[in-house]
Task: structure prediction
Amino acid sequence: MRLELLVLLTALALPAGADSSLPGFSLTHLANPAGASATCSLPDGDFVTFNGVSVDRWNADGSLELHLWSAPGAVFASFVEATPDGSAVIVGDSGNGAGVAGDLHQVALDGSGAQWLASVRFNYDGSFAPNGDLVVSAATAGFGNGNDLVRLRWSPLSVTSIGHVDGPSGPLAFSRNGDLYYATQPSGFPPPLGASDIVRWSASQLASNTWLDDTNATTVADHFQSVSSLAFDPSKGRLYAADNDFMSNVYRVLRVKTSVANSVVVANSDTWIVALRFQDLGSGASFDAYQPGDGVSLVFETTDFVALDDLVTVAPARPTLQASGPGVTGVGAVDLHIGGGVPNGAALFTYCPQTNIMAGEVGYPLPNFLHFSPFMLSATVRFNFLVPLDSNGAGSLALWNPGGLNGLYGWQVLVGKANGTLVGSTNAVQF
Result:
């Protein structure tokens, strides 16, 4: 059962503007060009939408790239999930409200067509296991009769019920080792406070064809309000959840720990959050604060079910280093300015001979973060003191160029906490 439909009964349109993310991350909005649609992201930054009628592929800037498929009739879109090989998406619908109760289709991303897979009544969410199986969460027995877990396998195609849990249909996600995670949903409206838990069935339970239910699920985190979506970070294997409390207008993306109380709030929104997913643009940077933003980022959809439907990207925000002043080109002062570092933190300056600077950056695994630098580490010199950063994470170091520094060195800064624990690094500059 889609709890979002219940929210629609009481939701009020709220203005955007209070969305926020942790320091070391950036948050950007893009209006969903196919409003009120299910969405998923692709590795190149494109995204796919299904509004219940049309499946379309869009460029990262929201411009239409390709119409992929039109459904034979209007339905309620439930989810879109990219296939592991990147050639297609699975689109789910929860029916049309007038007798048609829900189908799954595989839609090719090159626009060559769609294949009907199965009727999985009132499906809500789907996730691919590492072995290529697709597991779908669906109220196949009708609303009010619990939620089923249904497995699809290919070559040959088979559809098998593998479990049943109490309550309305909830989101699910697979970890890298093949464990299946699921967020339970409380019955009733409004839902009781803290009644949504995140549970797990192990990969060995799935492999042995154990029937999955409430009695053999392990609770991994508890007391969430209403978890609408789950996703695993591919770089670190951490679990993230969209937790929504429309009674108090608190909508958050959390890095899940053992309970809602100790989970880390990564982003806040004004409105309901759905469709969490990660995209990897390929630089090797992880989804951590102060990393380069061209690696792994988190995307979600936020909506008030009336007028607002945005795609939000939370990406690491790398600190910046700029060199300015007359000494950049000759004799005079040089200001090396840091922006976007740790608020009230510190900075450690480094330099490297330009003869030991590579054409591209290399990721060096340091104790607390992945350090991206074009410098050869064996030729890099660290200063023996820290430079303080202000409440905005900004700071600077003044150098004097007597006229002989030009063309000799590159400069880069490691940023960290006030105690010197380093957590990220800036770009490199040369003069």
